[in-house]
Amino acid sequence: MKKNTLKLLAAAFIMSTTAVVFQSCSDNNDDEELIINPGTGTGIASDPSNFKGEIKSGENITLDATKLYKLTGSVIVRGGGTLTIPAGTRIEANGGTSAYIVVEQNAKIFANGTATNPVVFTSPNPTPGSWGGLVICGKAPINRGATATSEVGESIYGGTVANDNSGSLKFVRIEYAGAIFTGTKEFNGLSLFGVGNGTVIDNVSLVNGSDDGIEFFGGTVNVSNIVSIYNEDDAFDWTEGWNGTATNIYTKRRANGVGNRGIEADNNADNKDANPRSNPTIKNATFIGGTTGEADGLKLREGTYATIDNVVLSNWTTGINVEHDQSVAYFNGQNRITRVKFDNVTTPASVKATTGSATATLLPNTYTIDTNATGAGNGTASPTWAAGWAGIQ
Question: Are 144 and 103 in contact (CB under 8 A)?
Fold first, then answer.
């Protein structure tokens, strides 16, 4: 009996010590619940109704797909930290543009949904600009300097690591994000600052944002199966020396004509010959627009280069608009844009010199026409790969 009593006392002491350890590691007031239910989230995920704060170096925070997370402020994943968002997780932002997620250099995000169970970032207030969007900062090259500071979150981005890895986004829908503060500070649905090609971005949808759907600020990241629809500015935007590939892009303006270009493409507005020069490969893309406002399907300017193939341009005043001497010299007559189908496009293409007042002469072979071009896969109709998860109506 004495031995059994000692064993019971020892077990009780161990349990008490364990409880103290749990309490000392927790930043919340629900310690007893954490002990009783070990599956409950830790750190900034411990209170789904108030999801905000920092994930520090060495912290690995995994959300619970059975819970609804309310993004009430900023979430910053610091270098060395990891945020994992399982398939089916829903995050609702209700903090305006003070609510956003930033993944800093050397940090990672893994938001991996499925076609039937996507990860969804949205808002209970279904209005564009209801929150600030998702920002990823990597260490891949940019042409704004050796490094720079992001518009959102003021985090460092850029470097020399072309294969930098910031994690993965798969089957993710981002809704009602974005905002325009000034001409140089804007929130997009998904902002990729110097993101490297070790990062996976596949099957991502940007819906009903108040600025651009997706924007690349330099970097080398490759993307595929991108939907950018009903956004109030450009659907697909790059600058600062992006060198990656984009395969399967479907974009569409709102029915009321709100929204700007299908693509807005820059190298560097301050130095059109800055290196590394923006020079992505765009393949299999459909851009559906409107004939009011900024009605260019593709606006290629500020010294950008690109290789563009198998494109459907529908319902634009100008299909392809090339501006500034460096971009005009690269595209004009050089067969860089191939297999284009124009549908209800008033002017297929135009070229304009840097001065703006001088219009260059559009040369043959600036683009080639293919009336059978499929674009994102289904002509002007939404592609089958976007069915269900992407929010296309």
Answer: no
